Amino acid sequence: MEVPCVRAPREEGEATRQRLADADLIDDEYELTVDDGSLYIPVTDPDAVPAAFDVVSRPLEERETQTTPADLLGFEPSYERLGRAALLDEDDDERAREIADAIVASDLPLETVLNKASKVKGETRVRDWEVLAGADTEVVHREYGCEFLLDLAEVYFSPRLATERNRVVEQVTADEHVFDMFAGVGPFVIPFAKRGAECVGVDVNPEAIDYLRENARRNGVEDRVTATCDDVREVAPGYEGWADRIVMNLPHSADEFLEAAVTVAGDDCVLHYYDIQHEDDPFGPGERAIREAAEPTYDVSVETERVVRSYAPHELNVCLDVRLER
After folding, report:
1. Do 35 and 72 touch, CB atoms closer than 8 A?
2. Cβ contacts of 128 within 8 Å, gap of 6 or more
3. Are 245 and 176 in contact (CB under 8 A)?
4. What PROSITE patterns has UniProt attached to this entry (predicted)?
């Protein structure tokens, strides 16, 4: 069966495998294969593989000893993996429990099964979960060499944005001042700090800030991370002109915080602005809002316009990388 794989020179194979494992991209249903001096590593989502890797398609053997949920159910269930947790979105309680039982009984390294019990809600964007297997909603997630402890019932976190986060992280250089206006448990802040940046992360959710501090400790970067629980509009005046880079990942309402972003921006600052807009004009509203807030104090230039993912029918989650020069 043709399977998407990352092809790596044999001598680089273990480092490549480890990096893909850190990003939770290895497909456990297939065997790794060595052929003609290259290691072929099966991956679950070829679109999420960093651009530096060589993605190919080739036949691979299925793992004979591994029992999958599909083997037990007779159909392929839909779920998302986060650390050792499987996340379901099933309206039928009986079907959800059937899938949960099969996941636990399979050979997959999953210990917890959670089913979405509400939509994302409130200022902190959390949702309710039904625990179908395991002790609770706290998980450990590994992403591109960083480790994050988080409670899905207390904080917002999307593993689907791992590739986008890594795209931004790879732009950061040592000694930058980076300000994350809606930091959550630190999926931007922690890898920024690991690259040597001095980081400030702000969030209105006290649980998220507690986890951000713990994750800074777990990853050995607590000396480069300042975590503050507050409305970022209240915090911004204390960091006037401080930031070389600002992350604004609050796509439904980031425009309401642009005045604070302009306050924090230094003389030459890159702004990563996330938005959700109609597919007919996904980037225009964000650019106009940024220009209205920043000009004429800053020259505004859009360096990148990127569609992150489809959000809803005819709606796109996008990012604008914008340079502000005083």
Report:
1. no
2. 116, 117, 118, 153
3. yes
4. SAM_MT_TRM5_TYW2
How far apart CA 301 and CA 323 sit, in angstroms, is 5
Peptide bond into 77 cis (omega under 30): no
Residue with token string 């650019």: 287
> How far apart are the C-alpha atoms of 42 and 31, rounded to whole Å?
7
The pLDDT value given to residue 65: 65
The SS3 assignment for 185 reads: coil
Render 112-127 in DSSP notation, one character per residue.
Answer: EEEEE-S--BTTTTB-
For 146-159, write each residue's pLDDT tens digit.
999 999 999 999 88
Domains and CATH numbers, the chain: 2-59 (3.30.70.2580), 69-136 (3.30.300.110), 158-325 (3.40.50.150)
pTM, to two decimals? 0.81
**Mean pLDDT score across all residues of the chain:** 93
Query: How far apart, in whole angstroms, are the C-alpha atoms of residue 171 and residue 271?
Result: 12
